[in-house]
Amino acid sequence: MRISRTTVLLLLANLIVFGFVWRAASGHQPVAVTQTQLFPPDPARIVLTEGAARLVLERRTAGWRVLEPFEWTANIWSVQRLIDELRFISTERGFDVEETKANGATLKDYGLDPPRWTLKVVGDGGATVEARIGIQPATRHHFLLTEDGRRLVPLPEAIAAALATSAESYRVDRIFEIADFEARAVSVRRRSADSESVTALTSEARPRVGRKVQLPEWRFETPVDALADPDATARAVADLTNLRASRFTELAEAVTGLAAPTLRIALEGNSRRQVLLIGNPAPNQPGLLCAKLEENPAVFLVEARDLRDWLNARETLADARPADFDPALVTGFTVTAGGRSLTLHRLEGGGDEPRWEIPVAPGSTATRRREGDARTITRFLDALSRLRAARRTAVEAGAPSVPAVSVPVSPTPAGLPTVELEFGAERITLTFAEDPARGAGARLVHAKGAPLAAICDVSMLDGGYLNVEPPAWRRRAVAVLPQGARVSGLRLTARSDGKVLGEARLGPDGNWAGAGRLEPASARRLALGCAEVKALEFSGRDTGAGAWAFELRVTDQAATGAGAASETIRTYLCSAPVDGRTLLMRDESDDDAFVLEPTLAATLLPLLAEPGR
Amino acid sequence: MSRPASITPTRRFLRGLARTCLWLLLPVLSALCWLVHLDRPARLPEFIGDRLAAALSTQGVQVRARAFWIQPDLSLAADDLTIAVAGLSGEIFEAARLEAALHPGSLLAGEVALTQLRLSGGRVWCPAALARDGVRRRLVDELSLDLAREGRWFQLRNAQVRSGKITCRIVGELPVQSLRFDQAAEGTPSRRLAAVLADLETAARWAERSSGASVTARCAGQADGRTELTLAALLGDDWLDPIAGRIRAHAPRLSGVAQIGADGRLGKWRLSGEARDLAWGGWSARRAELTAEGADAGGGELRLALSTVKGGGVFLPRITLRSEEFLKPNKHATYRLTTDASWAIGSLSRQADGDFAIHVEQAAIAAAELADAPMIGPALREARVSLTGEVLLRGISASLTREGAPRKVSGEIAASGFRGLGLSAESIAPTEGQPLRTCFDYEPGRLAAPLLLRELRLASVRGEADLEPRAGGAFRLGLRGDIAPASLDVILGKWWVDLWRDFTLAERPFAFIEVRGRWGEETAVTKGRVRLRRFEFLGAPFRRVEVSVDADPRRTFIGLHGLAGGASEADGSVDGTATWDWSRPVALAGPVIRLEGDLQPWIAARCGGAALGETLRGLELPAARRLSLELAPGESAPTLRVRASCEGTFNAWGVRGETLQAEATGLGKGLRISAHAGFAGGQAVLALAGDPLSRAKVELGLVRCDPAVVGAMFAGSPSLESASTQNLAPKGRSRLDLAFSGEVDFKDLKMARGRGRYALEDSELRKVRLLGGVSNLLEALGVGATTYELTEAKGSFGCLDGRAYFPDMAITGPQARLDLVGELDLKAATLDFEGDFSLPRKQGFDPIDIINLNRALVSLAKIKLTGPLAKPETRNFATLKDMIKPQQGKDLGKMPPSLLE
Hints:
The structure holds two protein chains of two kinds.
Chain A: H1 5-26, E1 43-50, E2 53-60, E3 63-68, E4 72-73, H2 76-87, E5 95-96, H3 97-102, E6 117-123, E7 128-135, E8 142-145, E9 151-155, H4 157-164, E10 185-191, E11 196-204, E12 217-222, E13 226-227, H5 230-241, E14 247-249, H6 253-256, E15 263-269, E16 272-282, E17 285-293, E18 299-303, H7 308-311, H8 313-316, E19 332-337, E20 340-346, E21 356-359, E22 369-371, H9 374-385, E23 391-392, E24 402-403, E25 405-406, E26 418-423, E27 426-434, E28 442-447, E29 453-457, H10 470-473, E30 477-480, E31 486-494, E32 500-506, E33 512-516, H11 520-530, E34 532-538, E35 550-557, E36 567-574, E37 584-587, E38 593-596, H12 598-608
Antiparallel strand pairs in A: 1-2, 1-6, 2-3, 3-4, 5-9, 6-7, 7-8, 8-9, 10-11, 10-15, 11-12, 12-13, 14-18, 15-16, 16-17, 17-18, 19-20, 19-26, 20-21, 21-22, 23-24, 25-29, 26-27, 27-28, 28-29, 30-34, 31-32, 31-35, 32-33, 34-38, 35-36, 36-37, 37-38
Chain B: H1 9-38, E1 42-43, H2 46-58, E2 61-64, E3 67-70, E4 76-85, E5 91-102, H3 104-108, E6 114-126, E7 137-150, E8 153-163, E9 166-175, H4 189-208, E10 213-221, E11 227-235, E12 238-241, E13 245-260, E14 266-280, E15 283-296, E16 299-311, E17 314-324, E18 332-338, E19 343-350, E20 356-366, H5 367-372, H6 376-382, E21 390-400, E22 406-415, E23 419-420, E24 423-424, H7 425-428, E25 436-442, E26 451-458, E27 461-467, E28 474-482, H8 489-492, H9 494-501, E29 503-505, E30 510-518, E31 525-537, E32 540-551, E33 555-565, E34 573-581, H10 586-589, E35 592-597, H11 601-608, H12 610-616, E36 619-620, E37 625-632, E38 639-646, E39 649-652, E40 655-665, E41 672-679, E42 682-689, E43 696-705, H13 707-715, H14 720-725, E44 734-745, E45 748-769, H15 773-780, E46 787-800, E47 803-812, E48 817-825, E49 830-838, H16 847-850, H17 854-860, E50 861-868, E51 873-877, H18 880-884, H19 897-900
Helix pairs in contact in B: 11-12
């Protein structure tokens, strides 16, 4: 193919022009944004002068700092607000000074002769912009005079508020730079007139009985090696790390007492340590204490109440938990009371729902055992693990309440109720001593080996720590038909004369045929209820139902087969109706009488009531 | 010029096309060349703006501008630009100037891709249709933007927004994808824009609640294409919350960090803030800390901690709230509340319908703080419930309306220091150490029973309760266990108090009790059973009983089952009932007691008084006994009917009897007793009226009884044992008939007062030997002429003050007669009788009788019996003293006049 000359010329002309366009376009520098900011967009130093007072803010690697009138970490939000407002100041919004002068006004009319503030902003690159700011007497509006003195810029109210803020507002309140999650150790040295005490806490992970994975937790190192209360200590540490300086002050050392501080709190974080010195109360302000950081001469005041926990840390932070364990890890426990004991063991491979077994008689080693009530046992262990010392009002007025813990009586008196928790081969033994001073629900609970015992309200244990009667722990389900099985026959008999009060049978067609009090509808309801007979509670004593008045015979049919061979019989002895809702029962093959759960009782009770009553 | 034949039409067409394009392109490029060398914007002809507006109009976007410009960098600019979108009324965007550069390559590909955007004086409007209040409003007052695309980043040189009192500035690098218009999103562009504007309007309204904010964000691009955004915000001091009202806070501030992925999606983020000296409503907090963090835009975890919270009379040193997935609906926040002496941990969430769900995992609330709470304290005081120690909560689930009213609350509560309605752990079982603990379920809307208590335990009592917690509300209590009756006094009322007043319990009764009623009204219906062991009722000892209770406002029915008294099974038991009919006047209401069984009578009598019981202790019935008792209130005094019967031998005050049939009616001083029994070989009939403990009127009849046995009763105080050893069996040869009417004190029978008659037949009653020992000798020789037999005795007698008077005892035989007068000192068991022996003449003339020398001897005989009753001394002849003083002892045996009245 041959290309015509015209085409080639056109192509060349286009290429040449495109080259010009390309060169010009690629070398084009974007023009500045249409708006023009007066101050550098990223200030590095701001100096605000108002008369003799100077506020100097400087940006450092770690953030903004106040350099004058005191040296302290700057409040980034306050500084940022000032910077944000400076960014909105544009010369375009102003007007020429000459124009105002032409109209007969002077700088004094705008409060700029002399100005109230002088604002000097140094940018990242060293560019410095200095402006004067004044308040127009007539309107109280703020006006800025540019450095060259040629333009006047009205300022929004927001920047006026930022300028009027005191130097105190430009500093952070927090004293410690260490955050609460970073804190690893706290040491408190308290000096009194004749003694000095040291309390040290450290956060560390140490394996404990009853816990599978132990995360770092606060412990006392001094004066004794003991656990600290996790909640109270975490809160106290958080409060300490968030401790605020109320205000800075200039007081003589003799007044502040910081040469020989009464309290010295050392807070250790990750690879850094800060020490706070607390001195005397501020003059005429007993609620405020003089304080300073060890490496900063600035003296400030802190509120005394914020340090309450640390003035008496041994008491306020003492562990309130006599037994801290994971109930899911308990493999067994033994309750001992009144010279008798009862041991319950968790069955292996119980699935999601733990299964427990109990001996028939207290302390028995009989091979015949019964299944424990998982709900009752779980609730007991859960309540046991949640025991907390009650709070005791502090002796000193205004001081915080402290957990009611005390040194246990040594040796432990014999005969006290105990609960021994098993975690495989490891044990936690808890004793429960009387504490008559605190009412019916309080007991002095002590874990063997622990330095302190706790006075706890044990109401939620529901008396479990005293209960050595196996029926109390029995599984509430007395009989549960397996899947597919069903009740096929019922017979109700008065035991006094052997008279059959009612009898019903399930027909092959699935309909009930009954006579006497067990007419079909009642029989169906009763059969449905008898598929799962549950006790409301087992009675561990003679409840007065010795004279069983009725006998209920339940015939069960297995899931497979319908002949007599597939049938089994349960026989229950029933008391006369005790009240409108209560019925006592006993499986004939079982020694434990029980109060029937209300649903089945509501079905059965009308059948037992004498006609006409 | 002819065309070469080799050029095909197709090639010819292509060549022409190329040449035409080159011709057209050349002026365009020339214009561009002029433009880029012009170094100032060039205003585009109006028709271009019109064409552009028309083209966009077909897309539903209406653009108007004062002028369109093309700038030397080939970007387009517009002055006084307004944009409106079809379907949204009015302009939605205004800008004083907009400059935009598009990527030419993408543009040729038909795609709009920004490479640079500058904006100043921008404003965003929310159309009236989208505004919540239906009024068009400005969402953004001032918007300045300067961004340029650099590779995969948008370089955000400056973005400043001012909306009301809120200013925001963002600088840094953003991933290109973050600003890409998502073509795949659902809905038309206008619909999506409307959604964005609606969201903005919501945000603006939300922001309006604050008194201002200054937000600064900086984006820093990472090598992997992500952007890290840091945010700092200083908020105004006020916040208007729709629920809490105006919240004031000092220097609230917010800071955050977020990662924006290369695809523009939000990655991990964290927001933290704090404020001091908060105040809202009547509440205040010294400090608030907020932390929120998440892994994406879908949600995250929120933590809020308030310290030193005060309000409503409550002081909470610390509250912490924690919420996971809080941005998603129906997610919950966990909290921890602490006061000086209380604490609670749990969670709360807001449901889709605006309700709140609060869960208290565990809490320990100091009772003192609870009592000081403004709502709870007065309610407790009104209900006269006092709490001490701690109230423990576990597993509480509460559903509250948005106004804070409870819809449903359930869980477990324990109050160790509960005292109310007369119930307390100490009152029920002081030694148990088991305070009140229960699971509860409260649902105000449930008509039957808003408050259900299950697995209730107070000391030794367990049970359930269905309650309507208001004055006059209905309640049902089902209690079982060892119970101290007094602990239910307040709940069950006066009848219960009265019932137990006369009980002295050695063991606490085990009770099943069901009570239905209304608070503050004495209309409770009580049913149940109480098993008592080792107790005393009205001083009478009982071993056990099972009491069934069926009480309602109209009547109270107490069933007594197996009321076993005394100390052993031999003391017997009774079954029975006690009923009160409250429809009758109080005095007549009851109890009506019916008992039947084999209880020893003295145990039943002991209920009537210790003295009566002790008196009847002397009456011991054999095992085959029956006792029935009916007691009913009467107009003036209660009426009593007691029937006692037995087969076989019984012992009455040491005297054996046979086959007793006794009936007592009346009570106290009005008691009438009639008894019939085999006694001393005969029959005894006793009728007693009056108070047997003081002086009862007695009519005693003995028929054909053995006088020796009867005499033994008066001779001493034989006990049962001594009676059994004595030979008191009737001998069969003597017979006593006796009728006595008088007053008897059963405590001291010897002090009986009254008169009677007697008749004694005994073949060997007495032999009178006129010659004493000589008569014995003669008798032995077969001569009985000087011996006379006496076989019958009869006469009257009277008893007074321990003495029995016999004024006319006549002892007769076939041939002789002995007339005696005398007295018995029952206390000293002595007698003093004297009399004359006579030989009565037969009717008609008998010559032998005339020469009977015995008559001469008899005339000399003076019978005198003195000394102990058991062994009296007998004299048969008169002494000299008798002859000298014949009048001495003339009053012997005479009944005192008082006895004769």
